[in-house]
Design brief:
By secondary structure, this protein is of the alpha+beta class. The protein contains seven helices and eight strands, in the order ββααβββααβαααββ.
Length: 302
């Protein structure tokens, strides 16, 4: 650096006191993340990075050092617990004796491949992700947040629809001769055979887990897969008619209120040894009401 450029950051701070956090929000940088197929891909991310200003008399941190260290670190580190620890350690070290703690928030969209239910086609699905990492007194604290979209068919609406269909059947065949299987099948396949349909809606499970940092990887894909499996009706990507019919069957097999969905999500998170604590919110974006049905659940992992 040219010696004749002034650096007012070295001046003594007025109203001197330490500061909890100083840094930058919404830094645009690429990060390397798991691709869901055993490898890694580079994706665009928005990052918040901060350190504490522990020295009360220091006017400010070395902001440019913090940015350059992060950029260089992300070029060589993947988003694993070990990689995040290295990034935070380097951020503290870059501040010389000014900082003792560092934290990161990384937001990106995970794009994962998903196969169709029957046809064999496949497509890509997007999952919003946030990773939070804090290094304080040598201890790494990790949190992982993501959301999963699924379909929820109302059990009450399904019961009412079945009753309406049964009543239509009784009306249409009240004076009919003894019925054959073929006659009933034809009636069920006609417009008369569906007097009512249950309402369903796109729904979302938002999950935040505090992770035990002794594991080697962030379990994003594994948790998404497990939650989609327990819900039973994740939204699809590539869909042919046979896939749509299979999806309709899955909805009939997985009728659920928001309370049911919250319990299903919790059943996965509560038995995972990688999770210290979890919070989940499920939102059913009602087609019957102009408001949403929401349930929240929290607890400890295994």
């Amino acid at each position: 650096m040219p010696a004749n450029l002034p650096d007012v950051a070295h001046q003594t701070a007025a109203l001197a006191r330490p500061l909890d956090w100083v840094g930058m929000d919404n830094i645009a940088l690429p990060v390397r993340v798991a691709d869901g197929q055993g490898g890694f891909i580079q994706v665009a991310a928005s990052i918040d990075l901060a350190v504490d200003l522990a020295r009360a008399d220091a006017r400010g941190i070395h902001m440019s050092r913090l940015y350059l260290q992060l950029q260089e670190g992300l070029a060589r580190e993947t988003l694993t617990p070990a990689g995040l620890r290295h990034l935070l350690q380097d951020g503290i070290a870059a501040q010389a004796d000014l900082a003792t703690r560092a934290r990161l928030r990384i937001r990106y969209d995970a794009l994962l491949p998903r196969r169709a239910l029957v046809s064999g086609y496949s497509g890509w699905k997007q999952y919003p992700v946030q990773i939070e990492a804090l290094l304080a007194e040598g201890h790494l604290h990790l949190a992982l947040s993501f959301s999963v979209e699924y379909s929820s068919t109302c059990p009450a609406s399904a019961a009412l629809s079945r009753q309406a269909n049964a009543e239509r059947f009784a009306q249409d065949f009240a004076a009919a001769p003894p019925l054959s299987v073929g006659a009933v099948r034809d009636w069920l396949g006609s417009e008369r055979g569906m007097a009512a349909t249950p309402h369903a809606q796109r729904s979302r499970a938002q999950v935040r887990v505090q992770l035990r940092p002794q594991f080697d990887e962030l379990p994003l894909v594994a948790l998404i897969d497990a939650i989609e499996a327990v819900l039973g009706t994740p939204v699809q990507t590539a869909v042919k008619r046979e896939d749509e019919q299979a999806f309709a069957r899955l909805n009939a097999e997985n009728l659920m209120f928001c309370e049911d969905a919250a319990r299903r999500v919790a059943s996965v998170l509560a038995t995972d040894p990688r999770i210290e604590h979890y919070e989940a919110t499920v939102s059913h974006f009602e087609s019957l009401h102009p408001h949403d049905a929401v349930a929240r659940v929290s607890g400890r992992g295994a």
